[in-house]
Design goal:
The complex is a heterodimer.
Chain A (H helix, E strand, L loop, with lengths): L3 E12 L2 E12 L3 E5 L6 H8 L7 E6 L2 E2 L5 H7 L1 E3 L12 H13 L16 H11 L14 H14 L4 E5 L7 H14 L4 E5 L3 H7 L2 E6 L2 E6 L1 H5 L2 H10 L3
Parallel strand pairs in A: 3-8, 3-9, 6-7, 7-8
Antiparallel strand pairs in A: 1-2, 1-4, 4-5, 9-10
Helix pairs in contact in A: 3-4, 3-5, 4-5, 5-6
Chain B lengths: L20 H16 L10 H24 L6 H19 L5 H24 L4 H21 L9 E2 L5 E2 L3 E2 L3 H23 L2 H11 L1 H6 L4 H27 L1 E2 L6 H14 L6 H15 L6 H16 L3 H17 L16
Antiparallel strand pairs in B: 1-4, 2-3
Helix pairs in contact in B: 1-6, 2-6, 2-9, 2-10, 2-11, 3-4, 3-5, 3-9, 4-5, 4-9, 6-9, 7-9, 10-11, 10-13
The chains are: A alpha/beta, B mainly alpha.
Bound molecules: adenosine-5'-triphosphate and magnesium ion (MG).
The site of adenosine-5'-triphosphate has 11 residues of chain A, from α1.
């Protein structure tokens, strides 16, 4: 078994004539936190969409745990354990916080097509759901609709829902975007904690988060890899500094 | 009483909160109890009218199962109602006297609609919105065409004088009273089936897909397969209503597979309240009632119903039951202490 959980080769995506992701060779080492950074429009979300099959690559391949998953369906890739969160908060707004988590837990039960069973058969998942919510500090909100949560807590719920699948590989798209400073700190600690025994690839603009918890950083610019390495090395790279000054994003 | 959030794009409805299940069942039990005495008071309400309401009410429940819980607008539901009706009717005409004739014909009719549903759904379900609606419309026109062409469907004449047969040689259904109670039992089973589907593990995922499809996909659910399953279930229940109707009225006509019937069920569902359990029943009662009591004005009934529909979508967009539930929800919310405030503007949930 190689040291890498995920390997992309020559991954490319063009929209019309515009190349959003260009020839990206990325290797994500198993059981590390790998940050993907870059200015707005660099192609980070598009790259995530490729990995999770929400977009079909124009060229290149994706190998996850030694299996080529380039042609797989998005749901099949998710079932393999490559589970993403979204840049825009993605909950089930009119389900309760507990039910949001339960929807994820339900897959293990294998009853997702059982239309003849009572939904009470899902109550066996309540304990697990409550444990997860308690773990991320959402237990008090279990009974309210996800739509009624504050923004920061919505993002937390998203992570809890993702964790409910117990995925070996998590893709987090800007988990702290738009959060107040306290929330950022909480999410940072949460990611660090849940990353034990998992691989995390995250897009993050907040440099304090990137510096504190990531093992490796890849800088993307205009769809291409500009630099890669640990924080100390990447942050001193003249090309990266230039890109960030030029890109107008910190 | 209300169940799942719904929003039909052009009429943009607000979702309704989940209520304890038992309320729906209690109200339903009351309705059934009231229906039990109908044959004893023919002076107040005709049993045949109630049977018609039960057939169309269940038909509308089937339609609502699809539109209210997946957001898919189908114009093929007459094809399901009709194909089950034709198969049941044609088999009854041939084997109606056999002790197992009625049960078999009914079952095969329902099965036929499930297969037609699988065929139409399989082709349409990858499309969304207007494209989905158009594909179902086109395919249901093929079913209509076949109904005109085939000999066993009676072509332009349809099937008439369908015998009702009997149940296991024990209960003769030719009596209206016997048929009435059998219809009530069949209707109750159908309604409870829809209720169960909505409140099942499958229904839970269906709601999640409806609420946020990319998120459901990212959790490993094949959303197209859930939509297809919902489509086939909806077609099956529509067929079940069609088989019931064929036995009750002893008649199946081209009207049953026509676009007119497909649009009528949309109207019933929206009029009563999309995504609610009782809305389709209320809508069917209103439409069937108007057709019956305004029968003297002939084709003008269509105009009257059309006007009512316009008033409904302009002023009661949630339908009769939907508006009532919304009113109750607002009242309950006013009584409740303020909820956790959203500190930041939450962007729309789906990318
Ligand atoms: N579906 C699409 N069709 C056409 N162009 C797209 C599509 N998705 C993304 N793009 C373009 O690809 C480029 C990269 O977008 P992407 O969202 O991947 O950037 P990003 O690095 O995630 O940026 P941000 O930091 O703002 O989230 C942008 O120029 C965007 O306009
Ligand atoms: Mg992005």
């Amino acid at each position: 078994m190689s040291d890498f959980a995920l390997v992309t080769s020559g991954l490319t995506k063009t929209f019309g004539g515009f190349t959003a992701v260009k020839n990206v060779d990325l290797k994500v080492r198993r059981h590390t936190i790998h940050a993907l950074i870059g200015p707005n429009g660099a192609g980070k979300t598009t790259f995530f969409n490729l990995l999770t099959k929400f977009h079909k690559p124009t060229a290149g391949s994706i190998v996850f745990e030694s299996t080529d998953i380039t042609a797989e369906s998005p749901a099949a890739t998710a079932r393999r354990g490559l589970v993403r969160s979204f840049q825009i908060s993605a909950t089930f707004p009119h389900l309760t916080v507990k039910d949001n988590v339960r929807v994820a837990l339900q897959r293990k039960l294998g009853t997702q097509y059982h239309f003849w069973k009572s939904s009470r058969s899902l109550d066996v998942l309540d304990d697990a759901a409550m444990r997860l919510l308690a773990d991320v500090g959402l237990a008090d909100a279990a009974a309210i609709n996800a739509a009624d949560l504050s923004y920061g807590r919505k993002r937390t719920l998203e992570i809890a829902t993702t964790l409910a699948l117990d995925p070996p590989f998590m893709l987090l798209d800007e988990p702290t975007q738009g959060m107040a400073i306290d929330d950022v700190d909480r999410i940072k600690k949460l990611i660090k904690r849940v990353a034990v025994g998992r691989t995390v690839l995250m897009v993050e603009h907040n440099m304090s988060v990137v510096a504190d918890i990531s093992d490796t950083i890849t800088v993307l610019q205009r769809g291409e890899i500009l630099a890669e390495g640990p924080y100390a090395q990447v942050s001193n790279d003249p090309a990266v500094k230039a890109a960030y000054l030029g890109g107008g994003h910190a | 009483m209300s169940i799942k959030p719904v929003s039909l794009k052009p009429i943009s409805l607000k979702p309704m909160p989940l209520k304890p299940m038992s309320i729906t069942l209690k109200i339903f039990a009351l309705l059934v109890a009231a229906a039990l005495v109908v044959p004893y008071v023919p002076g107040i309400i005709y049993p045949i009218f109630v049977m018609k309401v039960m057939c169309y009410g269940l038909f509308a429940c089937a339609f609502n199962l699809l539109l209210g819980f997946t957001g898919l607008v189908s114009f093929a539901h007459a094809a399901f109602l009709g194909s089950a009706g034709y198969v049941t009717g044609a088999l009854m005409i041939r084997f109606g006297t056999h002790p197992l004739g009625t049960v078999t014909a009914f079952t095969l009719g329902v099965l036929a609609s499930a297969l037609v549903g699988l065929a139409i759904g399989g082709l349409a379900v990858r499309r969304r919105g207007i494209y989905f609606a158009m594909i179902t419309l086109a395919l249901s026109q093929i079913v209509y065409f076949l109904a005109v062409q085939f000999r066993w469907t009676g072509g332009e004449d349809g099937l008439q004088g369908i015998p009702r047969g009997n149940l296991f040689g024990l209960l003769d259904l030719s009596s209206d009273t016997a048929m009435y109670y059998v219809t009530l039992v069949l209707f109750s089973i159908g309604f409870l089936f829809v209720y169960r589907v909505v409140h099942s593990p499958f229904g839970q995922i269906l709601q999640a897909v409806r609420e946020n499809e990319p998120r459901a996909t990212s959790l490993g659910y094949d959303t197209d397969r859930f939509r297809l399953a919902a489509f086939v279930l909806s077609a099956t229940v529509a067929g079940y209503a069609g088989a019931m109707k064929a036995l009750v009225f002893q008649l199946v006509s081209l009207n049953d597979v026509s676009l007119h019937t497909s649009t009528e069920v949309v109207l019933m569902t929206l009029l009563g309240g999309l995504g609610t359990m009782f809305g389709p029943l209320v809508g069917a009662t209103l439409v069937v009632g108007l057709q019956n009591y305004l029968a003297t004005i002939g084709d003008l009934v269509t105009v009257v119903i059309g006007l009512i529909f316009i008033v409904c979508v302009s002023f009661f967009r949630r339908g009769v039951v939907g508006e009532y539930l919304e009113w109750r929800r607002r009242r309950a919310q006013r009584a409740l202490p303020a909820r956790e405030p959203a500190t930041a503007p939450s962007p729309s949930h789906a990318p």
